[in-house]
Write a structure and sequence with these properties.
With 333 residues, this protein is α+β, with helices and mostly antiparallel strands. It has helices at residues 3-11, 16-26, 30-45, 54-71, 77-95, 265-276, 301-311, 328-331; strands at 98-99, 104-109, 115-121, 127-130, 136-139, 143-148, 156-167, 176-179, 184-187, 191-196, 202-209, 212-215, 223-225, 229-234, 240-244, 257-264, 279-282, 291-297, 314-319, 322-327. It is flat.
Length: 333
């Protein structure tokens, strides 16, 4: 496989015929599929899809070509992996993107002039993304963010599924809009958190600083949030409410904490599944009803489970990534 063809594929500039050729080639081994997926990530993480100093761009491309040359040499796979890891870390520092690089990034061309970047963070991961306008987005587990690669339109629009904390760079001439399935949020420069997972019944927006306007599509339903206010929208009933919040529990995840306030373990289990990439089951109906409040570091699932069982009448059994919760009275039978 030629270097030029692989580079065109990684940069998203290959023709359909060339893409098919590379796709057939990479199917030849898991190592090829794995490394090409990572190289596509590197291309974006290094900022090579946007305008940058031509000398710097040539240097970065040459480093990617060096990896491609080694990819074509099967006896150097171990060396490739070590060099790839070092390069990926450098690329992350260069562009201000932190966290693991295990998430999937892809391009999707909708027409000849507009190109979109889509970022997905899987279960068990978190990551921070630097947008073309200088705004930053912290993405929580199992979250997806999509945006145009150049941000040159009159409005900076991003599409979100999952949870994210936005720190938007002020720009009075170009409003920043977060689009979700049920409504959108418009800001001029602010910090706020949004949780809109597809399998959650409630969408939550919490404003840390600045001001945002929530647009439901109906002019009489638009809601403006001030700092320390939260907005809740029930997708099933389409009911909504705005409250003032005394703490920052809705953004604690950005600092590695899990904070809950009078939630059942059935509701909390969804967050734990996304955070630790595990599956929860319930050994009895009563176990789902236990209610928790508090804040805990989310560094280790075993420690967290021990804390939960110590604080309530819950016991658990673990089999690999599957965790079954029981009421302790049930385990005594």
């Amino acid at each position: 496989m030629t270097e030029d063809l692989l580079l065109k594929y990684i940069s998203g500039n290959s023709t359909p015929e060339e893409e098919l050729e590379v796709t057939e080639w990479k199917q030849g081994s898991d190592e090829r599929k794995k490394e090409l997926a990572r190289l596509k990530n590197i291309w974006i993480l290094a900022g090579l899809d946007v305008e940058m100093d031509i000398t710097k761009k040539e240097e970065e491309i040459e480093r990617i070509l060096a990896i491609i040359r080694q990819l074509n040499s099967s006896e150097k796979k171990k060396t490739l992996l070590r060099k790839f890891t070092r390069y990926a870390a450098a690329a992350i520092l260069l562009t201000g993107i932190s966290g693991t690089i295990g998430y999937y990034i892809s391009y999707r061309k909708f027409n000849s002039t507009t190109q979109y970047t889509e970022i997905f963070v899987p279960n068990g991961e978190r990551s921070t993304v630097l947008l073309p306008d200088g705004s930053t987005v912290q993405l929580n587990n199992e979250s997806r963010l999509k945006f145009t690669s150049d941000f040159r339109s009159s409005t900076h629009r991003v599409s979100l599924s999952g949870e994210a904390f936005f720190n938007v760079k002020p720009d009075k001439l170009k409003p920043f809009v977060v689009e979700m399935k049920d409504f959108s949020i418009e800001v001029l420069g602010t910090s706020f958190n949004v949780s809109c997972y597809p399998n959650d019944s409630i969408i939550t927006t919490f404003l840390q600083a600045g001001k945002v306007k929530i647009n439901s599509g109906k002019s009489d339903d638009n809601v403006v949030l001030s700092p320390n206010e939260a907005y809740f929208y029930n997708k099933s009933t389409q009911e909504s409410k705005k409250i003032r919040v005394k703490d920052h529990r809705y953004m604690d995840w950005t600092t590695g904490r899990l904070t809950i306030n009078s939630e059942t373990i059935g509701e909390f289990a969804k967050k734990l599944e996304r955070r630790f990439n595990v599956k929860f089951e319930f050994g009895d109906a009563e176990a789902k009803k236990h209610i928790y409040s508090g804040s805990i570091k989310d560094e280790d699932i075993s420690t967290l489970l021990e804390a939960l069982t110590f604080a309530s009448n819950i016991a658990f059994k673990r089999n690999g990534n599957t965790i079954t919760l029981y009421s302790k009275k049930e385990t005594k039978k």
